[in-house]
Amino acid sequence: xSVQYIMAAVNDTKFNSAVFLLTGIPGQEDVHLWxxxxxxxxxxxxxxxxxxxxxxIKTDPTLHEPMYVFLSMLAVTDLGLxxxxxxxxxxxxLFNSREIxxxxxxxxxxxxxxxxxxxxxxxxxxxxxxxxxICNALRNASILTLPRIAKMGLxxxxxxIAVIFPLPLLLKWFxxxxxxxxxxxxxxxxxxxxxxxxxxxxxxxxxxxxxLLMMGLDSLFIFLSYVMIFKTVLSVVxxxxxxxxxxxxxxxxxxxxxxxxxxMVLSVIHxxxxxxTYLLQILLGYVYLLVPPLMNPVMYSMKSKHLRxxxxxxxxx
Length: 317
Prior knowledge:
317 residues, Rhopdopsin 7-helix transmembrane proteins, two-stranded antiparallel ribbon, 12 helices, 2 strands, globular, transducer, transmembrane helix, transmembrane
């Protein structure tokens, strides 16, 4: 199916060697307009959800606590991911616009990957916040002050930019030949790299190190944080306090599992998948990029009573 779609895309488009061709869902070109409806709904709900979270946290002084400040950082990152992917994803399904210039593609993949790295760092900070709040509650306010949180956020941003910045620069030096057809409706490093006619060893090794050293280490430290949290919680005599402490971690755990599981599965399929996993790769790509920004506001507002009541009051008025 993928080979037929690639040939059709090349034949149907006035091919320009300075552009890549993006892919929707192969074999479903006739219903792309209908497929655009759920994508539009997901984008609208995600943008509204994250914007509401940001608005409530900014306007309610009682929510100016570490947990909610980190949540607002997560919402900003999710909005960035949505903005980075909207033009190409909706462009394909609404206007059948498959072409993307090299520079636009490299810019998009830079934002997608750097924002993913930033999100991973923020999830680690949120785990650290839960660890301090539960295991060292008396010093929580003195350790996680707002200026210190701002510095942590800046480090997350600089870390994501510094690590990803070499990727588009390396890709820009490659020579591209052949069909130049990507298997997603947006640009990612793993896909663009495969289209190069040059030696991609450096990109391959560097990309693998990013996955292992950044995502791998972040998820490992999150895991260790929760080991310490559960150890502390289980030593609490009161069952009510134990459950209350665990309840504050549930939403974060769900977000972490959703983010890292989809990222890990997609990375494995990109590196070791074949033509039989082509459709799965496309669908998982959408899950990886679009589901976390959609679900994060839902999961946090469901588990935070204060946040939930403020959202209800905002819309009931």
